[in-house]
Amino acid sequence: MSEHGGTDLLVEGLFRREAGRLAARLTRLFGPARLPLVEDVLQETFAAALARWPIDGAPERPAAWLAAVARNKALDRLRREVREQPFDEALFDAMPITEEPKADLDDTLALMFVACHPALGEDAQAMLTLKTVCGFGVNDIARAYLTSSDAVAQRLVRAKADIRKLGLTFEIPEGGELAQRLPALLQAVYLLFTGGYTAGEGEDLIVAEFCVEALRLAELITRHPATATGEAHALAALLSFQHARASARIGNSGELLRLAEQDRSLWDRELIARGFAHLQEAMTARELSVYHVEAGAAAVHASAKDFDSTDWQQLAQYYAMLEELKPTAVVRLNAAVATAYAEGPQIALLKLDRLSGDRRMDDYALFHATRGDLLFKLGRHEAAHAAFGKALECPLSDPERAFIATRAKSCRRVS
After folding, report:
1. 13: Cα separation from own chain's centroid
2. Residue whose C-alpha is closest to residue 128's, from 25, 40, 39, 236
3. What gap in Å lies between CA 50 and CA 9, rounded to an integer?
4. Where exactly are the structural domains of the chain?
5. Model pTM?
6. How far apart are CA 367 and CA 21, in angstroms?
7. Comparing 70-79, 80-89, 221-230, 281-290, which segment has the lowest mean pLDDT?
8. What is the pLDDT of residue 381?
9. How far from chain centre, in Å, is Cα 317?
10. pLDDT cut 70: percent of the chain above it
11. 263 φψ region: left (φ > 0), alpha (ψ -120 to 50), beta (else)
12. Using CA atoms, how far apart are residues 138 and 293, in angstroms rounded to an integer?
């Protein structure tokens, strides 16, 4: 690798690690209304690193260099704009340029509360979190949401305009306001993880970086006394259990591996232990949330030594609770899967058929694939082949498509 290429990788890695921290510190100084300026400054700062480091060499303390350049560029920009929006230049003394920047938990959480304000839509909250807190580019976000970069950019512009209109302050809310706004923040982190856990289309089954970032943010939320609620710990437990299985979900050739086929020695036992620790903390909550129940279901899988040891009766009970708390079509689909193992495929198919009238299931590959699997187990191979065929017409990642195509062929071989 050339020295230039090594420098590019260094800057790229620093951007992913430091962009969110710098954004939080700069937003504390400028206020949420100046988020566009903050992002411009960060882009200029990292562009300067890409231009100068290959020539001058990387500094001994690159993160401190980035903080200093960002501070100076921001100060220059604000001096030019002072007539429009006055600022207190003395505030920049709070951002030293000689010390290695540290992750400031308060600032990061405050920025998350800005990005996840309930007045913004769910997609806008998640996209803004990815952009400002996690340092992801517009193109990365567009791929995850199966949309164009222009569409994501427009959504982000509208979200930042809404923030400016709302006149949000840069702080962690307290009391009733915290209780009102924390659910939106937790939901954004949850959606960020689920969006990465199963990519919609393309070569990858998992967008691992999104999952890692979501887990990191969930952990941050549980470290602050103001936000370390039982519900927050339940979310952290759920994400820990789910991400612990990531390396076992894909085979050596990139194929999808179902739970029964996964090598459980590849599961991250340290992450599973953290999940159980979070679940223990979650029990301090006065009432159970959806995250509690989902984490409980994930814990059943995490504690089973092998697939045959899975307590499907307990899982069916968890999903029955979920159907009460979160009666969505996707939850009912997962409940049917648990029922298939607890009570048999015929009863599960009856549950699944009740969803057939839901139009949201038309383009949901997992619905058709699950139905095909149940029909296959019941010996109805022609109907199973048709169901798998419908699944293949839906958006899928490449590993999912290959897996379902193989299942469809198996129906023909048996028929």
Report:
1. 19
2. 39
3. 10
4. 4-94, 104-199
5. 0.80
6. 40
7. 80-89
8. 94
9. 27
10. 86
11. beta
12. 34
